[in-house]
Design goal:
Blueprint lengths: L2 H5 L3 H21 L2 E5 L2 H4 L6 E5 L6 H14 L19 E6 L7 H8 L2 E4 L2 E4 L2 E4 L4 H11 L3 E4 L13 H10 L2 E8 L1 H4 L13 E6 L11 H11 L4 H5 L3 H4 L1
Parallel strand pairs: 1-9, 2-7, 2-8, 3-4, 3-7
Antiparallel strand pairs: 5-6, 8-9
Helix pairs in contact: 2-4, 6-7, 7-9
Length: 251
């Protein structure tokens, strides 16, 4: 097992990293911008394992930063708010998030996110200088399934920040095989406040929003296509929502 994989399983180190990331990111999330949180009542009562959060995606890292803050705040009994971040004194660490391997090794901060619980997957390959999207390979799928056995996992089925991009079947395969509780999440405003990576702020005073919906009622015997369609509809990235004009909010 690589050293980084061993380190990310050390609970005390994870707590320290979450505290560092939390202190750095709190001002841009809750002071320089406005954060609206809804639906934490759907999260507070969840078991501590085999829970999969599926969400749309607007930046590489800012989205994940907010998830971390909210989960830590919920651990301290907060409802639909962050407030003063004393929750960073004892953060919630039983959470992992799926991230593209090629975006996680660019600088010291992204490498810190690996130790914070990134499950790195091979999202793209290059052909004649062109980036080609692909589905999760089996080894990446197994990595996520193992994480679910004892933790929560955050995944972004589209694997891209482009709104209304098609979801990937790998997410549906994980749901079908691991049978997790699936919590859909809808985020908005992050593309206005941050650059694509989510490490630099473009604009202050932006309304950021994150809504946790009630867990999906899933028939795990359904086809992969049907499960994926249900997920994409729940995170409001399906064709139905595109035709409603939702892209005017998310592009």
């Amino acid at each position: 097992m690589p050293l980084t994989e061993k380190l990310k399983h050390i609970k005390l180190l994870r707590k320290l990293i979450y505290a560092i990331i939390g202190i750095i990111t709190y001002p841009v999330i809750a002071i320089f911008n406005k954060l609206k949180i809804e639906g934490t009542e759907h999260v507070a009562s969840l078991p501590k394992k085999n829970v999969l959060f599926v969400s749309n995606h607007q930046t590489y890292f800012a989205d994940v930063m907010v998830f971390i803050h909210i989960f830590c705040a919920i651990k301290w009994g907060k409802k639909n708010k962050l407030g003063i971040p004393y929750y960073l004194l004892n953060p919630f660490t039983r959470v992992y998030f799926v991230a593209a391997e090629e975006t996680m090794r660019t600088n010291w901060l992204t490498r810190l996110f690996i130790l914070a619980g990134a499950l790195t997957v091979k999202r793209t390959w290059r052909h004649e200088s062109t980036e080609i999207r692909r589905n999760l390979d089996p080894s990446d799928t197994r990595k996520i399934q193992r994480a679910l056995e004892k933790n929560w996992v955050i995944t972004f089925p589209q694997g891209t920040t482009k709104p209304f991009a098609p979801g990937r079947k790998g997410t549906a395969h994980i749901i079908k095989n691991s049978k997790p509780i699936v919590v859909p999440v809808v985020i908005n405003g992050f593309w206005r406040a941050f650059n694509k990576k989510g490490l630099k702020m473009k604009k202050r005073g932006v309304q950021l929003s994150i809504t946790f919906k009630s867990p999906l009622v899933i028939n795990y015997e359904d086809s992969v296509d049907d499960i994926l369609e249900q997920v994409m509809d729940a995170i409001e990235q399906s064709k139905k929502y595109m035709l409603k004009g939702a892209h005017h909010r998310n592009i």
